[in-house]
UniProtKB/TrEMBL annotation, chains A, B:
Transmembrane domains' residue ranges: none
Organism in which the protein naturally occurs: Paenibacillus phytohabitans
One Pfam family linked to the record: Nitroreductase
UniProt record similarity statement: Belongs to the nitroreductase family.
Protein name: Nitroreductase family protein
Domain of life: Bacteria
Sorted UniProt keywords: Oxidoreductase
Amino acid sequence: MNTTRNNDFTSIITGRRSIRKYDTSVKISKEEMTEILTEATLAPSSVNMQPWRFLIIESQEAKAKLATIAKFNQLQVETSAAMIAVFGDLNNFDYAEEIYGTAVERGLMPAEVKERQLTSLGAHFAKLPADVNRETVLIDAGLVSMQLMLAARAHGYDTNAIGGFEKDQIAELFDMDKERYIPVMLISIGKAVEEGYASVRLPVDTVAQWK
Amino acid sequence: MNTTRNNDFTSIITGRRSIRKYDTSVKISKEEMTEILTEATLAPSSVNMQPWRFLIIESQEAKAKLATIAKFNQLQVETSAAMIAVFGDLNNFDYAEEIYGTAVERGLMPAEVKERQLTSLGAHFAKLPADVNRETVLIDAGLVSMQLMLAARAHGYDTNAIGGFEKDQIAELFDMDKERYIPVMLISIGKAVEEGYASVRLPVDTVAQWK
């Protein structure tokens, strides 16, 4: 099943608005949310470690918990089809064997290349400073979050990226190891019932220089 | 002028590969690069501060400088139409007056809302811990980088997101204040002359949980 309803890239990026209020009667099936996440996670990441992790918060009970740490964003929590909590996994190298092993199984990588790369990556991660790992994970989580918001629009939904919540509390609230999983953002998703505001961007000449 | 050549969202995201080798005869005009950056910077950011900054490194001289700090990625530096260095601006609040003032000028925001928001944001940024500012900037820079790579594909180009370079040296090398501008990634861009490798993604059930 492919439920994509809008495939027009220009309209997807130019029509995206931060939407706070959603149609409460619209839910997103696990099947469709899985498609959206499958599209989102086609994003690239540092040495393909895919350090992003997601909680799809959609039950009344889980939303009520989230509401306690997202006080300025109650409207999104209450009306969205789901709130997606995006985390970065600091232990992302734990999945290296699975990722590279699958590449070999699928004939995408010779076994000897996998062994060589895993040895080299193992050495890299063993001496990777914690702050560099953390920053890489945040950047990669930013990449996937953008693609997630665009994939949502391709499926006919809108989103709001939210940084304003109690980041220090979210992992424990959902029984995750807070030393391992670092909070990145919340993304509300659902069917918009407002137009959202157009917002201003700085001119390209202000943010870019040619060399 | 609109030079967009591919508007098919599905093909843009599913066909994206990390490309290392480009057609050296293909350059990207400043006009078209400006369009790509205009599309990229439609990405959202925390309180719309747009903390992303870009160096478009395309001259032989600037590329030769960059090559000294990107030793494992010489092929991209040599063959790309340009290397885009993405930075985060830790002083992004300096642009608040310009961003919100323009919104008022364009009739997108009443003047009193602007004043109220700038007062509130001023108080927020004044007490924002440096590490929180830094992490927010990295996440926002991740968002814009993803949209940049997709916009590039809409214009018929391919990219490679590169984290492996001497991040501690890039600002000074290009005469930027390294205390203010933090390096995020390099993005090579150009016309691909190789297919690139398909790569494996972890199953959604491994990276997501429903609550």
